[in-house]
Amino acid sequence: MPVVESSVILGVDHATAFAVSQTTGETRLRWDPFINEQHLMDGATKPAKGVRTSTQHRLKVLRMISVYVSYNPPSNVGMKMIDGPWFFESFAGGWRFAPEPGGGTRATWRYSFRCRPRWLAPIAERIGRWVLQRDIDRRISGFARGCSDSEVLAAVRASSP
Question: How many domains does the chain have?
């Protein structure tokens, strides 16, 4: 199964980085270049294991329904696709946040996927690896900007208990 990964060191603690990664609405749109819209489903008001999300790509041509398979603030979160683009047989994403010894946080994002139809997968997965690597690199760069954006950080602080 192909895997792509990107990592960045941030100037915020790992709890803040985790909280930024879970923002929604206008706050999320300030930093995430991939999405046009994303929301929790089934009346859920907070992310948690088993909660479903709907995500629409910025070009409005792709939509994915995913479910949280793990939710462990402030260290990690994992999701898997339950319905999405026809060319993915499977798709999953995981995010880890770890304190850096000198301060700050290392954020690591990883996608794993499998393409279909199986006879085309060897070529599609090579292309997918390139496209998704570019995407995850852009997203984590946007995430790093979000972790230093005063409006994003204010929204995170306002929603913290």
Answer: 1
How many residues would you count in the chain? Answer: 161
* 71 strand-pairing partners: 77
pLDDT per residue as tens digits for the range 102-136: 899 999 999 999 999 999 999 999 999 999 999 99
Which residue do the tokens 């060191």 mark? 9
Longest dimension (CA), the chain: 50
Whole-angstrom distance, CA of residue 88 vs CA of residue 126: 13
The residue range of the domain holding 133 is: 3-35+73-159
Q: What is the CATH number of the domain that holds 23?
A: 3.30.530.20
* Three-state DSSP state, 89: strand
d(CA 90, CA 150): 36
The pTM is what? 0.92
Query: How many CB atoms neighbour CB 11 within 10 A?
Result: 13
Give start and end residues of each alpha helix (H) in the chain: 14-21, 25-31, 121-146, 150-159
Q: What is the pLDDT of residues 18-30, one digit of tens each?
A: 999 999 889 999 9
